[in-house]
Amino acid sequence: MPGTALHFTIHADGRAYEETLLVRHAVIAGWTGRDKAALEKHIVELEELGVARPASTPIYYRVAAARLTTADAIECTGPDSSGEVEFMVVQSGGRRWLGIGSDHTDRKVETYGITVSKQMCDKPVAPELWALDEVLPHWDSLVLRAHAVIGGETVLYQEGSVAAMLPPGEILDGYAAGFGDGTAMFCGTLAARGGIRPAERFAFEIEDPVLGRVIRHAYDVTVLPIAG
Fold it and tell me: Are 124 and 69 in contact (CB under 8 A)?
């Protein structure tokens, strides 16, 4: 079965160590917000822009595991893609790990095929993980944050608590195919400040203020020409 090997620094049980994890299944969970009224409002807003209503909420999009990368640069066809910070859960060896990634998506393709748009771009992930069970007791205190370099200027692009999304266990349990070893799932995002837009560079992080630590990653975006 195909898969991609990702090298991580893992923090668990009071120590840090290096390990390569094989991801065979990559999943993007969408529409994971806790506030159902706000969720419906956003669905209607996107419908007005031509983005189809999701078949369910949450909804789970499969992408090729090879799309996951810890690289610090990606290449995208055309100027219409953008990133969004998401917390990520990976299962390996029977244990679940918390990480962070960017669901970089082609927004033009998204208007006529969300599943296809998810497959169009690489999905950068930070090369660092925490034991999920060690953060669950204070889960809602975790903060997601992203900065984007747009026109040479660094702006705060997204910021907010993971409490905006359903708890991770609920999101994972909703995946009908089953969340098991070798699976990585992006679990939802926050509204973009100033609207969704492309950037030359995207930096993202998850902060744990209770244990006083942060996972960070950033990547540059090279736009490839559309020849016709």
Answer: yes
**pTM attached to this predicted model:** 0.94
Q: How many other β-carbons are positioned within 10 Å of the β-carbon of residue 179?
A: 21
**How do residues 145-203 score in pLDDT, each as one tens digit?**
999 999 999 999 999 999 999 999 999 999 999 999 999 999 999 989 998 899 999 99
Q: Is 88 exposed, middle or buried (CB count within 10 Å of its CB: 0-12, 13-18, 19+)?
A: buried
Q: How far apart are CA 10 and CA 126, in angstroms?
A: 11
Q: Which residues contact 64 (CB under 8 A, 6 or more apart)?
A: 2, 26, 119
Query: Which domains does the chain show, CATH number per domain?
Result: 4-221 (3.90.850.10)
Tell me the Cα Rg of the chain: 17
Cα–Cα–Cα angle for 66, 203, 221, nearest 5°?
Answer: 60
